[in-house]
Specification:
Length: 114
């Protein structure tokens, strides 16, 4: 039975795994035992509590094409490497977004997929 409900899939890239109602991606080089979220919780306790946090390479996201309703990035390197590894790939963000879906970086709209 279709009740007309539409589930929104929001993706928080490179966050600390605590954005409400989001899938919270972490790069492969993240160490669960050392990462502390903004609210002071270890990332391991958030994942244990059921917060969805996929671990994948920043340049090859694990999501199929055109499946994400919105992407959020805050204070993460985009298309550049740091001493920790490669930053988030803008091409991957554009690939996973559904048509018409936005990408917000540091609170401002930077892209909407045609």
């Amino acid at each position: 039975m279709n009740l007309g409900l539409r589930i929104q899939l929001w993706l928080n890239l490179g966050g600390e795994g605590e954005a409400a109602n989001c899938i919270n991606q972490q790069p492969l080089w993240g160490d669960l035992s050392n990462i502390i979220s903004r609210n002071g919780q270890p990332l391991r306790s958030l994942t244990t509590a059921g917060v969805p946090v996929p671990f994948c390479d920043n340049t090859s996201l694990v999501f199929p094409d055109s499946t994400i309703d919105a992407v959020i990035t805050n204070g993460v390197p985009i298309d550049q490497a740091t001493w920790l590894g490669p930053g988030i790939s803008s091409n991957e963000i554009k690939r996973v977004l559904k048509p018409g879906s936005p990408w917000y970086d540091n609170g401002r709209l930077v892209y909407r997929k045609p």
